[in-house]
Amino acid sequence: MPMQAGGSLVNASLRATLVLAFAILSLLLPLVGLYGSLSYLTPERTTELGIRIALGARRDQLLQMMLLDSLRPALLGLGIGLMMKVVATRIFQSILFGTRPLDPLVLSGVIAMLSGVAALACLAPHGALLG
Question: Are 101 and 89 in contact (CB under 8 A)?
Answer without folding.
Answer: yes
